[in-house]
Every structure is written in C-alpha cells, then in structure tokens.
Amino acid sequence: MKRIDVTFASQGSRCAAWLYLPPSGSAPFPCVILAHGLGATRELRLDAYATCFAEAGLAALVFDYRYFGASEGEPRGLVEISSQLADWAAAIAYARAHKDLDARRIALWGTSLGGGHVIVAAAHARGLAAVVSQNPFTDGLTNLASARPFEMLPLLRVAIKDQFQRWLRQQPSLVKVDGAPGELAMFTSYDSETNQQFLVPEGVQWGNQISAHALLHLLFYRPVVYASHVQCPLLVCVGDRDVADSPQAALKTAQTAPRGEVRRYDCGHYDFYAGKIFQQTVADQCSFLVRHLLKESKQVQDDAELPMQ
What is the strand order of the sheet 130-134 is part of? Predict the structure, then answer.
C-alpha cells in the first residue's frame, strides 16, 4: 500500500502525519483518522492499525500532536487538552479537504487519552461516519477515585510547580508517563517494563516524558459527559483489567452514546497494542469501520440508483 508523509496546520504550527491509501479501489476513499494517547507518538504501533485499515479498503491519516514526535511546537512534551482537541479538529478539516478522501466518510480512532479525545471531537464535529475509542480515558474524576493519595502527593507537588512555570512561560518540568513504583510518573506499575514492550516496537525510541501540569487538567477532563452528543456510531473497546483508565467509566460512555457499541476483552491497558488481544481488537474494529464506511455507504448509493416506481 502507499504511505505518504503529509502535514497540516493547527493553530499556526504543523502537525506531521502519515497518509495510508488502500492498495486497491479508486479515490475518493473513506478515511480513518488516528492519534495516540498521553505522551505517545505515531511510531508506537499506530502504523499496525493503519495498515490493517488500509488493507480493509480504508485510507488512514495518522498524526502526532503538536509538541510531540515529528510535529512542530515548543516546548517539547507539552500536554494541553485544548491544544490536542484543536489538532483533532485540524486533522478532520484536512481530511475533508483532501482530494483523495471522501469528506462524507470520515471516522475517528483514538486510544487511551486519544480515546477520550475522539468522543469530545465527535460531539463537536458534525457529519462523521463512525468513531472507535480504544481503552479510553473517559473520566478523570473516576480515575482519581481509584488512585492512592499518598503516592500522588510528590507528583502533585511537581504538577503545581509546573503549572506556575507554564504561566511564567518557563520550560516545563517533565515527568515520566509510565514508570516503576517509586518513580515520578503519571502511571506506576511493577509491569512497567513489560508494558513498554507491548507499546514500543523494537528500535523505536520513546521519550516517555510529558509536562507535569498535565495531571491537573486530566483530573477534571471528562469525555464521558460528551457521549450523549455523539450522533454517529461509536465503538468502545474496553479492557476489563485496565488499571490506567477506568473500564466502568468507558462502559458508561458507550451506554450513554445514542449509537454506542461495546467490545470487552480480558486484558489490561497495554495488552491492546500487540499479540493476541491486538489481533482480536483490530479485527473487531475493521469489521465495525467497514460496516459503517463501506457497506452502509454502498447500500445508500445503490438505493439512490434504484429506478423510481
């Protein structure tokens, strides 16, 4: 299949992206827009999903948020929810204007924090064909309820300091996204090294660092409250053993959405990215996306071509 390096503008900076075109068929193609979670970049297994979607007959636009990966933006490692949502809006606008993509058949795909972003983005962007939200961050308050307060205190102190540094336009204090117990990190686990083996392909370098003040914004970020405004089909893929993002909040999100569907898997947060669980989930997601971007649109076209009685 064909993969093209492209860029698009978001609030004055360039977001870097890969555009995958299907190996057969003719333009304009239906398109799935993909982006990652907290502090992650497109090299962290998003190419595997995009390849599967392209093989199923769908174009795929895979982008990095500003301040990360190959995208522009200073300081590096900056996580601001409003900026990332603006990047999603810019990606949708780019896809709708692209000559090889069908503006009427655009879907969103997000994982982890990106899985929450696609719900908010879909609540604001009309005319989307479908949304896939994988092991999503849907309710910061619910996640907080399961946190260990004393373990959070050192991170909270750094986050508050970093927020003041942000207001003063100073360089951010960076912390790890994923770390071992005792490390200053957004998520800590004794399985940290194994988790990163699922997420980070061999030979890929991942900074694993973000601005600490992101914690203050994530605590009150609640994509679940936008679910009732998502009018297109929504597939939520939930890991029943996810300890990073609440499975209960993800299930509630799917139940609240007018056209929500759920697929549940006996796995944790990082199991989605490789191995057996990846194979299961990507097959389910391809089936869902093909149904709503290819089969249903073809049925509508066929119905429109029927002679009037």
Answer: 2-10, 13-21, 59-63, 29-35, 101-111, 130-134, 234-239, 260-265
- Distance between terminal CA atoms of the chain? 43
Q: Which band of pLDDT confidence, cut at 50, 70 and 90, is reported for residue 297? A: low
Is 249 domain-assigned?
A: yes
- CATH of residue 31: 3.40.50.1820
Confidence band, pLDDT 50/70/90 cuts, at residue 303: very low
pLDDT of residue 188: 85
Burial class (CB in 10 A: 0-12, 13-18, 19+), 170: exposed
Q: What is the mean pLDDT of the chain?
A: 93
For residues 162 and 252, what is the distance between their CA atoms, to the nearest angstrom? 33
d(C-alpha 136, C-alpha 42), whole Å: 17
| Boundaries of domain holding 255 | 2-139+222-305
For the segment 43-80, what is each residue's pLDDT rounded down to a tens digit?
A: 999 999 999 999 999 999 999 999 999 999 999 999 99
Query: What tokens appear for 49 in the block?
Result: 């999903």
Tokens of 250: 């993800």
202 within domain boundaries = no
**Is 175 among the domain residues?**
no
Distance CA 188, CA 110 (A): 22
Question: Has residue 131 been placed in a domain?
Answer: yes
Q: What is the DSSP letter of 71?
A: S
Query: Helical H runs in the chain?
Result: 46-55, 81-97, 113-124, 140-145, 149-167, 192-199, 214-218, 247-256, 275-290, 296-305
Domains of the chain: total: 1
Pairing, β 185-188 against β 59-63:
unpaired
- Please give the average per-residue pLDDT across 181-186, as a whole number: 89
Distance CA 234, CA 242 (A): 20
